[in-house]
Amino acid sequence: TNRFAYGFQRAVTAPFQIPLQAMQGTAYGPPLIGTLGGVLRGTFRTIGDVVGGSFDMAAAAAPYAKYAAFI
C-alpha cells in the first residue's frame, strides 16, 4: 500500500537528513552555530523519520496480520 511505501521511504532516507540539515544550517545561519544547529536538527529529524516510518509501516501491515495464522 501507499502508506507502507511512504513509511519505508521515510525510514530509509532518514540518515540523509543530517548532512542536508547541516548544509542548510551552514548556508542560512551563522558560520559555526548554523552548522551545529543543522546537525542537531538533522539528528532529531532522523530519529523522528525512523520512528515515524516504522509506525507507518506497522500501521499499513496491521490489517493483514490476522492472516498470518494461515501461513
Tell me the layout of helices and strands.
Blueprint: H1 2-13, H2 17-28, H3 31-61
Overall average residue pLDDT: 93
Count of helix runs: 3
Spell out the helices and strands N to C: HHH
How many E strands?
Answer: 0
**CA gyration radius, whole angstroms:** 17 Å
Provide a descriptive summary of the structure in words.
The protein has 71 residues and is mostly helical. Helices cover 77% and strands 0% of the residues. It has 3 helices and no strands. α2 runs antiparallel to α3. The longest helix has 31 residues, at 31-61.
Which key phrases capture this entry?
71 residues, mainly alpha, 77% helix
Short description:
This protein has 71 residues and is mostly helical. The chain has helices at 2-13, 17-28, 31-61. The chain has 3 helices and no strands.
